[in-house]
């Protein structure tokens, strides 16, 4: 007989269904009857038949009609949930030997939000909305994952599998731990408590029941008590959950670190984690609660808790529901922890590092595109390219500075990409431009160099064993150390925030020059009929607000430390906040540059019919494919978001990159336009001696 398990408020109720021709409304009523039976006040429900509720599918968000029959609307592994709800039901469908699990969420009219319910965020990312199960794999060995790979895993582009070498190392380290347990040796986190309780030895009876006849069940239940207590007690984070993409990155990175074979995880448990990742079963991980030493304990504990079948979990099919039911829906079992495995799952810098990987990848993308946006602004403001002369930058040979100057030349070099705008002011008497244009190689350059520095640290951290104690199978011993301390990624990500912020700081000043008629030859705020229209007036204010907010966010979190765990963990990195605010800073930089990109393209409208260089015209055409010119005022936020999306997806870089690559690869001679300050090396004729021309 088909059976449904219905989650009402804080209870799970079994509802048998003899006939699947029954309706969704019938199922809700049957569940409510069982719910109120054991409630002294009927759970606040006056009459079942008068209770109103709605249900909808998780994937399509389509509402289900109360008169729909179960067999017509619920299919194998189908998921539905409540939209705009205050209280939920979650139903699972189990038919005979096949586990057909369906989640139905419904609201009881008048209820308040269940504290256990995590609603689908209204701003579901395009990646999550368009998620399709990947078919390609990335092989993990703990040594070769890059920040780019990790971000792609977060985006759901790949599944995971272990290399054969990694499997061997994992098995060897586990065998050593099993020997330690059998011999009752005292080892931190295996036969002792944690943190302040490191000197408290756990009774053997709690760790090994192998001497008890027919004790397989007791071994299963009691060997894991210490480790499960650790995970449960450390699951103390607060705040919104990480997005599915970021949780996927966190899980992938923890798997990669465990694959190094120095944490003592069993191959069975590690494979269970991989199966959960490949099914995109993702634990509820609050974003706040880590101090970055001993590792990211709280978020990683929440990650492990879901894998244990406790707490909440998310998948593309189910949305948020109880972890055990999400795992069941995908044919997975909760992991059963062996000695040291709880510690192996939660001890490390993976939240700092995974968020840091996204931050540095996005920073790298926006830094490259910042050069393109700034070059477009320089054209609109009729600036000169003389400041990008290679000889200037060879005298101060920072790699980033040289690279940015070369990128500007490749975009603006009029002899190779003729610009009518540049030709229109070639013989003007302007000697030099404002710093916001002239000093782009110096300001953008250090941002590029810092990003590269941070990326190297993040990539090292991605492939580092950050557990404690470390298991050395080849030496036959475990050693306690401090690799879990997050100071490296914390400091690096503070540096990243400070460096990438300058891209927004200087961009906002260029927006000011575009909007201010006293600093340009353009209409005030880049719009006709000023007064009637305000144009980019408030868009510039938004850019200024974001830059100001970044100034506060750039205060380094890693300069702070608070002693925790009764002074056992007496110095911490605060790297979790460093990573989270780095992402916010990068996002603000993207948004400010999106505003500048729109302003520069609008400025070109007032210079027509003159055209800019070929690569910059391609950028202009890209922007105009999603945002039309401003003839008069209109709702501007969607346009800013559209430009922001172009930058996030690196489409601005994609259209300009072929021209940049061609310029750099073909060694095209550098053009050096004449400027008012140019002079001849020949001695000028004396003003007292006039040369007579025959």
TrEMBL record:
One of the protein's GO biological processes: L-histidine catabolic process to glutamate and formate
Keyword Lyase set for record: yes
EC number: 4.3.1.3
Keyword annotations: Histidine metabolism, Lyase, Phosphoprotein
InterPro entries on file: Aromatic_Lyase (IPR001106), Fumarase/histidase_N (IPR024083), HutH (IPR005921), L-Aspartase-like (IPR008948), Par3/HAL_N (IPR021922), Phe/His_NH3-lyase_AS (IPR022313)
Protein origin, superkingdom: Eukaryota
EC category name: lyase
Annotated Gene Ontology cellular component terms: cytoplasm
Pathway in which this enzyme or protein is active: Amino-acid degradation; L-histidine degradation into L-glutamate; N-formimidoyl-L-glutamate from L-histidine: step 1/3
Family matches, as CDD domains: PAL-HAL
GO molecular function, one term: histidine ammonia-lyase activity
PROSITE patterns: PAL_HISTIDASE
Keyword ATP-binding: no
Par3/HAL N-terminal domain ranges (all copies): 5-79
Catalytic activity: L-histidine = trans-urocanate + NH4(+)
Family: Belongs to the PAL/histidase family.
Protein name (Swiss-Prot/TrEMBL): Histidine ammonia-lyase
